[in-house]
Amino acid sequence: MGLINIKELSRDKKFIKRVITIAIPIAFQNLLNTILNLVDNIMIGALGESAIAGVGLANRVFFVLTLLLFGIVSGSSILTAQYYGKRDIKNIRRVLGVSLFLGLLGSLIFFLGGLFIPKIVMRIFTPNEGTIEIGASYLRIVALSYPVTAVTNSYIAVLRATNKVKAPVFITIISIFVNIIFNYTFIYGKFGAAAMGVRGAALATLIARIVEASLILYVVYRKECEARAKINELVDVNKEFIKKYFITVSPVIANEFMWGLGVTIYSLVYGRMGDDAVASITITQNVEQICFVLLQGLSAATGVILGNELGANKLKKAEKHSEYIFTIQIILVGILAVFCLIIRKPLINLFTVSEQVAYNIKNCLNVFVIYLPFRSFNLVNIVGVLRCGGDTKAALFLDISGVWLVGIPMAFLGGILLNLPIYYVYAMITFEEFYKFILGRRRYNKKLWVRNIVGA
């Protein structure tokens, strides 16, 4: 895979405009969600490092659920984007129906665990009884939002795959303001409310997610669009459609769930390294996400643009545009690496943490910058390029083998056996990104993803 001349890319104004039109709103929405998580941690951080650790570990449950839901909607988006390329609205709504069913079914499991056995769930991540108590009190309330999130994600995925990316951004802005206002109200006991601490943060999150889902449904069903499906259209599936759906989507669902489960084991290791380590990695990941939103937007745009082109049988065009996208990715990496180093110190200063935790965060972010070129390629290649053409089994192998054969052994070696500082452990774990880069580049070059999977 060679770099496309930047002049050639710059002449394709139509392509650049389309990338920007899709990627920027998605990146902005991800940035808003990241800022919300950051504000949450800053507000909760005022309650102490144990509160950050407790909520951070409790949210690993939501992290695994989010990855399961992402697997469902990301896999569904492969079909949605290609069906949209051939303007097949009937099958788009069928995909939405299956996505909703699977999302609600999956979220129900996490909902029941968080609601009825939160302490047992928390003990998976940490032996610290104080942290368990804090996390369980948060989990009992926030678990009520899980089914709501499944509905929201399913509809947003269809809107994105059909090039309607602006409405979710505005809705996210509203839900973030709702969350911040209620955070302030319920965490600290303002405007006459009782001070609820971390339970207040959970209640604010629940309210915000209900508002977000309600607004998404209002936007979708207010006027005609691809996602405006009636119940009979959502359940109008046959054996042939279900077979095609699961052949395409099941590797993606397995990919995200097994990858998420593996990454959750990292949290198990971090939890046994102490609250300082958990607080350090929790804050580090918030800062990383701010630096990563543009690449996430580019990855999402890749899946939509190339998926639409493959569905419309424009295979050569999709192949050419994939090279353009990797050129953009390399340019973004350079910009984001510098940006991360600049904002690192000011962001760390926002948190009420010890000098040791601040030192840990600084070094973890250095690790992030070092691995950024490999990590960004893997995101765009696996989530954007390989999946859009249905090469989902290769994507599954890359992600799962990276976590389970490289990352997890490194986590236990560094964090449990050698008892290294958190930033060394994080560097050892993140080596999986280099492994995936080597194999992923070879897979991309085979061009097995360049195919129409929904028919002529």
- Alpha plus pi helix count: 17
Give the total of domains. 1
Ranges where pLDDT stays below 50 over 5 or more residues in a row are none
Q: Which range does the strand content fall in?
A: under 5%
Q: What's the β-strand tally? A: 0
Q: Rg, please?
A: 21 Å
SSE sequence, one letter per element: HHHHHHHHHHHHHHHHH
Q: Report how far apart the termini are.
A: 29 Å
Shape: globular
User: Fraction of residues in helices?
Assistant: over 70%
The largest β sheet comes out as: none
Mean residue pLDDT:
88
Structural class: mainly alpha
GO molecular function: antiporter activity; xenobiotic transmembrane transporter activity
Subcellular location: Cell membrane
Protein name: Probable multidrug resistance protein NorM
Organism: Clostridium isatidis
TL;DR?
By secondary structure, the chain is mainly alpha-helical.
Q: How does this structure look, described?
A:
The structure is a single chain. The chain is an all-alpha fold and 456 residues long. It has one domain (6-445). The protein has 17 helices and no strands. The protein has helices at 6-11, 13-45, 49-85, 89-116, 118-123, 129-142, 146-161, 166-188, 198-222, 231-234, 239-271, 275-311, 315-348, 355-388, 392-417, 422-430, 432-445. Helix 14 (355-388) runs parallel beside helix 16 (422-430), helix 14 (355-388) packs parallel to helix 17 and helix 15 runs antiparallel to helix 17. The chain is globular. The model has no long low-confidence stretch (mean pLDDT 88).
